[in-house]
Q: What sequence folds into this?
């Protein structure tokens, strides 16, 4: 008899677990990639991710401020017996709610209802996306993931012709995906079935362990294994690298699932997992809740991230456009002073006020805007994990923000060429913090307060007081972009 409380508590414990623990296979794969990396910016980004991961594991705080949309694959044994008549999905969602409202480690609520209307936050990250199927046996198996929006938004589905070249399609697509999915991570691919089946398989494949190096060592025995190896090699030769900065490793593994399909069809779905890849598997057999074993800390590299001698300390309270002219693409800056935060909803509110000729609740002239939606703090924290969100989503607002006099923006991933041109025109700058290093970044935030649009929750405007916050210049006043120049350089090296 599988008890209701065992289902709910196991789901809650699993979501807490994956919020702060990377799996052993991911730590080992990322460490190996870090040790082989030759690109300095990419190597630095990887070490920030690994150092932040270790801090998260020790402090039991989220790996990423985006604690994800919960996706669960449940296999129910046909002979399994459940206590009472409560619906399985309801029990799972009770566990999700408990996990995200945990006072010892509150997780960011990112799920909104009425997606085409008010987009109101559900406040406890429910409901989960649940896939259930019946299997033989008397046990219930759970595979649980928390999927960040940056990587989920890069999902693609294409209904290809049977004679089309999958490899060419994927190699053309990967550079178009940009860096918003926070590479290096894992690429999931679903081939066959119908449109929805292909997408589900791509998502499900991301639950499998990272084992490409074992496959390379023993050699392929199936067509799918051959395709995995080919794509892994060719994608990494694109030179995109960690955070899109240019480097040798863009994917840590490529996973593929297939299914019989119509003779006229070849559905292909692609979904990446980011550097904060979070998933866990467990089974309930009636003996009690799941027993979750922490990862091995000795799998982390001996190195821990520290600012290097080339880092430039910057007081952003006193910075001018002339000062910004000294910084070039690839420079590592350590920012100290006061910065504002604003994400999609805050930008939309600001635009509405400007359009209606109303006064803004905060002065943004000569300020830096950090694209972030932090986790709530606990204890003596100024703020919880606070890594960057994808800057590309803010491109539509950038011209007006620059017209209002902002000096710089901080986010992750590339900007559109039109936005790069605007940054150059206004002699501003764009910097990136490392996606997937949210806990490390939060250590630089010494004070935080909400100063506008408080009702937006994590999307409110905060003022952060930071000390030595590490960022990299991604677009300078000359209009150079590291996300353009880095991959070009390393694609040549990789080939």
A:
């Amino acid at each position: 008899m599988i008890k209701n409380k065992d289902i709910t508590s196991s789901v809650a414990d699993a979501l807490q677990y994956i919020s702060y623990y990377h799996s052993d296979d991911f730590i080992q794969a990322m460490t190996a990639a870090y040790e082989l990396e030759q690109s300095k910016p990419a190597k630095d980004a990887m070490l920030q991710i690994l150092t932040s991961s270790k801090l998260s594991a020790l402090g039991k705080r989220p790996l990423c401020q985006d604690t994800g949309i919960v996706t669960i694959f449940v296999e129910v044994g046909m002979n399994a017996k459940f206590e009472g008549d409560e619906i399985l999905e309801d029990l799972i969602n009770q566990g999700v709610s408990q996990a995200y409202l945990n006072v010892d480690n509150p997780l960011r609520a990112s799920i909104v209802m009425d997606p085409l209307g008010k987009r109101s936050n559900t406040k406890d990250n429910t409901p989960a996306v649940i896939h259930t199927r019946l299997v033989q046996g008397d046990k219930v198996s759970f595979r649980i993931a928390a999927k960040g929006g940056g990587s989920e938004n890069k999902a693609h589905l294409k209904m290809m012709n049977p004679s089309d070249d999958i490899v060419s399609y994927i190699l053309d697509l990967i550079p178009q995906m940009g860096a918003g999915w926070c590479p290096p991570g894992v690429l999931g691919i679903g081939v066959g079935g119908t449109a929805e089946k292909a997408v589900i398989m791509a998502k499900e494949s991301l639950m499998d362990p990272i084992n490409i190096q074992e496959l390379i060592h023993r050699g392929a025995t199936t067509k799918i294994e051959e395709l995995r190896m080919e794509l892994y090699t060719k994608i990494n030769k694109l030179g995109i690298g960690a955070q899109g900065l240019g480097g040798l490793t863009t994917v840590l593994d490529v996973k593929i699932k297939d299914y019989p399909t119509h003779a006229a069809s070849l559905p292909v779905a692609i979904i990446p997992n980011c550097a904060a890849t979070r998933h866990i598997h467990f089974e309930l057999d009636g003996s009690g809740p799941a027993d979750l074993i922490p990862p091995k800390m000795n799998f982390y590299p001996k190195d821990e991230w520290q600012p290097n001698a080339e880092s430039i300390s910057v007081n952003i309270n006193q910075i001018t456009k002339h000062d910004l002219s000294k910084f070039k693409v690839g420079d590592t800056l350590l920012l100290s002073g006061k910065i504002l935060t604003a994400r999609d909803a805050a930008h939309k509110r600001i635009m509405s006020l400007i359009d209606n000729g109303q006064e803004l609740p905060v002065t943004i002239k000569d300020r830096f805007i950090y694209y972030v939606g932090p986790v709530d703090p606990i204890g003596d924290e100024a703020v919880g994990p606070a890594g960057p969100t994808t800057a590309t989503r803010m491109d539509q607002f950038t011209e007006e923000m620059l017209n209002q006099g902002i000096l710089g923006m901080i986010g992750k991933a590339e900007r559109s060429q039109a936005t790069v041109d605007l940054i150059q025109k206004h002699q501003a700058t764009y910097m990136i913090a490392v996606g997937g290093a949210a806990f490390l970044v939060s250590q630089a935030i010494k004070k935080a307060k909400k100063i506008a649009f408080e009702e937006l929750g994590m999307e409110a405007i905060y003022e952060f007081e930071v000390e030595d916050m590490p960022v990299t210049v991604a677009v300078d006043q000359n209009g150079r972009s590291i996300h353009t120049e880095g991959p070009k350089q390393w694609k040549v090296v990789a080939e």
